[in-house]
């Protein structure tokens, strides 16, 4: 990133109106992908979370692998408890059964938590693809590239795939690792 720009400058002599890449925001991906000529669609994978008082909870970020639950200390005496992946419309309200399922999974391992004191119950959509692989690369529009569909791994994998995509755009050469992730697959 140079001078606050996420994309490299166009090559000398290029018409910047034709070569400056752009990308759609991930939440609007499904509607956008139908217009862009992308052959792969995504749908929302909704993750649930809430916060509880920190007493009895882990003091460091903790992943309860078998339960598929994550505990993240927030400071101020609160811990975020997150888990669940639900394929449903992004605008569907919170399903209380999903919150209860997270509590039931975590309760045996987190015994001192006051589960009834939970606040900040939330559900948020993550773009997921039918084959589980992210969409990284050019689309049917010559000026539009995407880096999305990482599901619940976006925070971990987004920066690396963003770097690979930026390098591919800057050099005009895409690494072999991105081939199976092409948005037009």
Automatic annotation (TrEMBL):
Nucleotide-binding keyword on record: no
Compositional bias ranges of the Low complexity kind: 31-44
Domain called FAD dependent oxidoreductase: residue spans: 29-167
Stretches that traverse the bilayer: none
SUPFAM superfamilies, A to Z: FAD-linked reductases, C-terminal domain, FAD/NAD(P)-binding domain
Keywords: Oxidoreductase
Listed InterPro entries: FAD-dep_OxRdtase (IPR006076), FAD/NAD-bd_sf (IPR036188)
One Pfam short name: DAO
Region (Disordered) residue spans: 1-44
Protein's recorded name: FAD-dependent oxidoreductase
Annotated source species: Streptomyces endocoffeicus
Lineage, top ranks: Bacteria, Bacillati, Actinomycetota, Actinomycetes, Kitasatosporales
């Amino acid at each position: 990133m140079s001078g606050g720009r996420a994309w490299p400058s166009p090559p000398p002599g290029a018409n910047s109106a034709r070569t400056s890449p752009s990308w759609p925001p991930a939440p609007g991906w499904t509607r956008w992908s139908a217009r862009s000529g992308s052959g792969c669609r995504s749908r929302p994978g909704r993750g649930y979370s809430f916060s509880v008082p920190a007493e009895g909870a882990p003091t460091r970020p903790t992943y309860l692998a078998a339960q598929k639950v994550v505990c993240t200390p927030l400071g101020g005496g609160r811990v975020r408890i997150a888990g669940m992946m639900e394929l449903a419309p992004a605008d569907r309200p919170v399903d209380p059964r999903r919150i209860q399922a997270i509590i039931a999974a975590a309760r045996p391992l987190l015994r001192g938590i006051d589960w009834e004191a939970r606040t900040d119950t939330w559900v948020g959509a993550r773009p997921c693809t039918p084959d589980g692989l992210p969409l990284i690369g050019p689309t049917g529009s010559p000026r539009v590239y995407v880096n999305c569909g990482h599901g619940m791994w976006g925070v971990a994998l987004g920066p690396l795939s963003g770097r690979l995509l930026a390098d591919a755009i800057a050099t005009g050469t895409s690494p072999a690792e991105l081939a199976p992730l092409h948005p037009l697959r």
